[in-house]
Write a structure and sequence with these properties.
alpha/beta, Aspartate Aminotransferase, domain 2, Aspartate Aminotransferase, domain 1, 2 domains, seven-stranded mixed beta sheet, three-stranded antiparallel beta sheet, 12 helices, 14 strands, 15% strand, globular, binds pyridoxal-5'-phosphate
């Protein structure tokens, strides 16, 4: 699905030297690269504060802790997402209110958000799924009207640009109250272990986020609030600093691969290629097809695998049908779009190192097995 080795080969000199320097200096925690990467990412995103942390799930949890949400508060998020989004809501004793997504862009359905707002609703967590932004302008308007926080889950869409109706542009994750991202190795900006970050333009919130990520500590050994221990280590910061310089190139390479696939599948009636949002660029964390009703997905995956092609299902089971998230609030059948997508999506290999020969081979095999 990804070729992290090929990508590494191109930045090997810088990464190897940087990692060796960390080992020589033994500044494994809070070494200079952490601050440098933080500043580089702030500049890249045009955001006032980036707070690095240990992973994307922690980023979401710390964000919700910083907003002082209380047990019983309702948080609205998409039913079609990675489990981490809903997990932290439940973990903090908040009530996850799942809503359906749009059938074309896979993003959270804004009308469904509005329908589910109650006096207990405190926050909306849009997920910029597979690499393009949810409809942030509409979501921010709803949030303003109902006085809600917006926590963007930008784990899959770092670098995507959202365009407002007045032409103004902003990077994914910098529009809401807080943005949360992940540097898991296979993410668009991935490190060589775990990593994550939180973004905000709010000075006071930034102070609080930093404090929570660091044991709730304001001054050494003074703990003002309940916190966690969540750090980005120096070696990961070295890798991320080197890769951030190439992030736009990486997105361009992913877009080239996506355009190749689009073209190759354009006359295949059994495949629906990804629909581009009119308001967001796409950074193609995933290239996700919708298979026609006549196609046996399990068999197709097996046949592709026999031909050396991995293909993944993101995500096979909707959140509201997972045992851990069963609730009186929703039952099977409540989110028809999510349920349909979970049954028909298939993601093809998508990364920065796909050449035309490989893409042609994948496309030919997929076409042959589905036409
Ligand atoms: C990867 C991911 C996360 C969690 O990130 P980790 O770094 O693995 O904790 C959260 N939300 C979404 C949508 C993701 O894809």
């Amino acid at each position: 699905m990804v070729d992290l080795k090929g990508q590494y080969e191109k930045i090997k000199t810088e990464v190897d030297a940087g990692i060796q320097e960390v080992i020589n200096s033994t500044a494994f925690i809070n070494g200079p690269a952490v601050k440098e990467f933080q500043a580089d990412l702030e500049a890249y995103l045009h955001v006032k504060h980036v707070i690095p942390c240990a992973n994307g799930t922690d980023a979401l949890q710390i964000a919700m802790m910083a907003l002082d949400l209380k047990p019983g508060d309702e948080v609205i998020t998409a039913s079609f997402t990675y489990v981490a989004t809903a997990e932290v809501i439940g973990l903090l004793g908040l009530t996850p209110v799942l809503v359906d997504v749009n059938p074309d862009t896979f993003d959270i359905d804004v009308k469904a958000i509005e329908k589910n707002i109650t006096p207990k609703t405190k926050a909306i967590v849009p997920v910029h799924l597979f690499g393009q932004c949810a409809d942030m302008e509409a979501i921010m308007a709803l949030a303003k009207k109902h006085n809600l926080f917006v926590i963007e889950d930008v784990a899959q869409a770092i670098g995507a640009d959202y365009t407002f109706s007045d032409g103004r542009k902003a990077k994914a994750g910098t529009i809401g109250t807080i943005g949360c991202t992940s540097f898991f190795p296979s993410k668009n900006l991935g490190c060589y272990g775990d990593g994550g970050a939180i973004y905000t333009n709010d000075d006071e919130l930034a102070r609080k986020l930093k404090m929570i990520a660091h044991h709730g500590q304001s001054v050494q050994y003074v703990h003002d609030v309940l916190g966690v221990n969540s750090r980005l280590d120096t070696i990961q910061a070295v890798v991320l600093k080197a890769k951030l310089k190439h992030l736009d190139e990486y997105a361009a390479a992913r877009n080239r691969a996506a355009a190749f696939y689009d073209q190759a599948f354009s006359s295949n009636p059994n495949l629906k290629t990804p629909v581009r949002s009119k308001k967001s660029t796409h950074v193609f964390h995933q290239y996700t097809l919708q298979l026609g009703a006549g196609i046996d997905r399990a068999k197709l995956r097996e046949q592709l695998s026999e031909r050396g092609i991995p293909a993944m299902i993101y995500y096979p089971i909707p959140l509201h049908m997972q045992n851990a998230y069963k609730s009186d609030r929703f039952k099977a059948g409540d989110f028809p779009v999510t349920e349909k997508l979970c049954a028909c999506v298939l993601s093809l290999p998508m990364h920065t190192e796909l050449d035309n020969e490989t893409l042609q081979y994948i496309a030919d095999q997929v076409n042959e097995l589905t036409k």
